[in-house]
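Priority: medium. Attachment 1 of 2:
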């Protein structure tokens, strides 16, 4: 007797993180810590055009020739690529830019779960654009609001919290 048994693979259920007692008010990142992360992100981008100009001067370029030099153009291209990667792509994957990683904060959903890629993409593009259109006043909502959420956080349903999973009381 022969049997032709076929291997049937059962789908592996996705593991879901369960957040217990998440309190965005208690875990919210302070405004000045968020500012520190933005300054680090800004410095990472601006260092390349500055270095391009310095290198151009070292190579003897000046004036209009310096600004249109290949060194300056490459420096700006690198700055744009790093800026987009750090401000949009990296947060979509990890919930943090490099500045947020350094200061220890992270973007999460209001429930404390990791924010979806689309949510962070919206927050980091359209949300920031709307916040900038308010002449930056949307950032100050995180100072005066009880939950520490800026305008782009309100639109996207996110909050920026301390990234450590072990909170000290």
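Attachment 2 of 2:
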């Amino acid at each position: 007797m022969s049997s032709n048994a076929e291997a049937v693979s059962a789908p592996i259920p996705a593991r879901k993180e369960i957040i217990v007692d998440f309190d965005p008010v208690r875990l919210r990142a302070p405004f000045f810590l968020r500012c520190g992360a933005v300054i680090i992100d800004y410095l990472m981008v601006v260092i390349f055009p500055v270095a391009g100009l310095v290198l151009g001067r070292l190579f003897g370029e000046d004036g209009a020739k310096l600004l249109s030099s290949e060194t300056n153009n490459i420096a700006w291209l690198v700055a744009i690529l790093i800026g987009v990667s750090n401000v949009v792509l990296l947060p979509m994957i990890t919930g943090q830019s490099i500045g947020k990683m350094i200061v220890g904060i992270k973007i999460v959903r209001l429930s404390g779960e990791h924010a979806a890629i689309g949510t962070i993409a919206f927050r980091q593009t359209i949300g920031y654009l709307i916040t900038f259109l308010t002449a930056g006043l949307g950032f100050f909502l995180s100072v005066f609001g009880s939950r520490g959420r800026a305008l782009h956080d309100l639109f996207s349903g996110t909050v920026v919290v301390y990234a450590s999973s072990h909170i000290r009381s």
